[in-house]
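tool_call predict_complex ligand=zinc ion
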Amino acid sequence: MKLVYCGECDAVSTLATLERERCQTCGKPAVRIELPRPWQYWGATAVFLLALVILLATNLPEIQIRFLVLLPFLGVGLVLSTWGMRVSKGRALDAGRALVKGGKS
Ligand SMILES: [Zn+2]
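tool_result ok
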């Protein structure tokens, strides 16, 4: 996964790693923005790993109970990854704007 910035529409697009770097809105070439992952991303990864460890360690026989145990972890993980994505996009927008402005002056 990667983030690209389009100067034409002043928008950030989320692309798969192997996709060509262009804007999802107008289709014009966009600039790739490299950013360190926010802490929410690592938080979500940790939560998912923890859920896996708990599942393996407890070895619950009932599939419904397993699901109930996993549900809060999945919820928290999902919230964290969505939040992290939003933070990343906001940062990419700032970085992209700075990049475009820097190129013009
Ligand atoms: Zn665009």
